[in-house]
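Build the 3D complex.
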Amino acid sequence: MRIKNRMSGNEALGQAIRQINPDVMPAFPITPSTEIPQFVSNMIANGEVTTHFIPVESEHSAMSAALGSEAAGCRTMTATSSCGLALMWEELYVAASSRLPIAMCVVNRGLTGPLNINAEHSDSMGARDSGWIQIYAENNQEVYDNMLQAHRICEHESVRLPIMICQDGFITSHAVQNIVLEDDADVKAFVGEYKPEHYLLKANETMALGPYANSPYCMEAKRAQAEGMIQAKKVILDVAKDFEKMTGRKYGFFEEYKLADADYAVVAIGSAAGTMKDAIDKLREKGVKAGLLKVRVFRPFPGEEMAKALENCKAVAVMDRCESYSTQGGPLGAELMSAMYRNKNKAEAINIVYGLSGRDVTVSDVEGVFERLADIAKNGVKDKQYTYLGLRG
Amino acid sequence: MATTFDFKEIQSREDRLAPGHRMCAGCGGTIAVRNVLKALHPGDRAVVGNATGCLEVSTFMYPYTAYEDSYIHNAFENAGATLSGVETAYNVLKEKGKIKENFKFITFGGDGGTYDIGLQSLSGAMERGHDMVYVCYDNGAYMNTGTQRSSATPMFADTTTTPAGRLSAGKPQYRKDLASIMAAHNIPYVAQTTFISNMKDLYTKSEKAIYTPGPAFLNIMTPCPRGWRYDAPDIIDICKMAVETCYWPLFEVDHGKWILNYQPKNKLPIEDFLKSQGRFKHLFKPENQEYIALFQKELDRRWEELLTRCNA
Amino acid sequence: MALKASQINDETKWQDLTEGLQIYEPATSKTFETGEWRTQTPVFDEEKCKQCLLCVPYCPDSCIPVVDGKRRAFDLMHCKGCGICVKACPFDAISMKPGK
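Done.
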């Protein structure tokens, strides 16, 4: 039975995991994702799932054990944040290149240093080239919905790549919001049983995994892996269509909020999109044609589609909750502007770093960004193309 | 657990490590792997794990795997964690009735992947109680990258990061006693062995390690002709001397009980182990004799400690 | 269908490599000749051999096949000529000759 409820993002993920009932979950606690393995452990203790939990001694071992379990033929999930994700770094690449569709709940938090526990995208953005699919959420409903779609995407035979389901630390993971939970049986049917083609424990077949590969094979292997990511684009949209049939909730690579006729647009990932929508509503009342492009899928990067969606804008602010220290801006800025250039977009574009380590972003902050965009549309980019929002000094 | 040793029957078993791998001629590591895998009962399947190292890059060079069984290499420092994931998956699939066959889980790591970079992952896997065997093929240095010292390297060995020179007598520290560290995990079975006579010691310990329920750890001294600098056939004498000098005692810790498997009637001086190896050549210069005495002193202390533990 | 290891070589296109470079067959290394490395070759004297099999576990390259409890001729396709078996033999039934 479909249930309306109220819960946090982590609780929503806990419910999704209960319904998916993965075979194995190795995990190590780290704020703000700690609740997820706690929920799973509780559900195991109370017989609500048949998942085997591996209480590993580090995140590196969490991902290592996840790799072993997935290679052995089990649907495997884990969860982490920040430095935990950083400790997994090496393993992220091994999982992707081994074509093992592990699903990971990433509760985004800034990387140290300084040590801080709040929302930022530097953890998963740092892993953006590791070969994992990355799907981001604005709120708890989206986290839950993304999680339900994850296995259908990552386990698809044309994809077979690991997937990160990302949400903002505390803002989404801990804040309680209204949510619709789908029926257990419907979810089970939607997600389906895991039937890997090859695995270590398969009857009448051996499997060898993780070779040393000489140069004649490595480049071809990497191209073949990239093909999985290319194919993921179609699969993500197909799965979203099926999901819409079940739930009525529509998903794509990104959400366009009042973007169709917008002169000025902001592009952002995650929870700050909610604040931006409020600011846009206020500006629209004043007759300002403001809009938002909220990125859901960052890997594979839907650059062409985003550039097209922005092609009638006069000025665009790409918002990064992550500093890349390139001196050129953040990762979303770099990638989207490159896509806009290829698409010959005429809009002026700037890149704004905001919300680092959980720094609040307010409606008036966003209104300020739109004011800047209006000025830029009229007078061009006068100051720096890459700036900080809400910074003292 | 009781084990039987029928040498001819065991040697008649099919090799589970196939030829055609690229390990060096005369490699001790491969001798260990072959003989450990021989202890698997015919009919049982296995998943062989492997930390990055010589063994990995030489026995699974795409598309050539040397293993008759399923095999997983992940990275350098995580062979313990990786196999713990495989073993957990086995329990799940068995529980769900999705597999019928019996599998055993054996992972191999060199001393670099085991004593050093992989120690945490190994410790975690052992502490959690996975039913698996971790085998360290201990050749006493990072051989895959060119003989850099490890915490398993014997005292005063000349390695590429502890070179003997005008101001250096080689590695200053004695080796880490990893078997004791593993025994301190209070796992069901820990043993230390090497290649002696008809390999009965190695076989028996491997069989116990594989068929004792729960985690087990085997530490096998596997001489490396390149890194230790000796002629490949001398491996037999070197292993014998390692045991006769008590540098490498043969012992096991079976459910907490320390057992000395061999006590030389006449304990030989450490020189008899050192002298045939190029990595200790510098110790035999007249001005370096004091170092041999220091080595002997520490060896004696550890041997006495082991005798006490084993109540021998 | 994934290619067999024997069909994969440095001409194989990226579309045809096995997914994640996984191999679904056992012991594919058997087709690789390491015997070419040899600079000296073991010679087995069947007269002197007592079939004690002590040489067998000492071979690093699994090159001494045992059939019906008896060792057979060396697998020279793979033997790297290390000479350990010569020392392992208590009956001088194995010697090394220079070359392949």
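Residues 1-32 of chain C form one domain.
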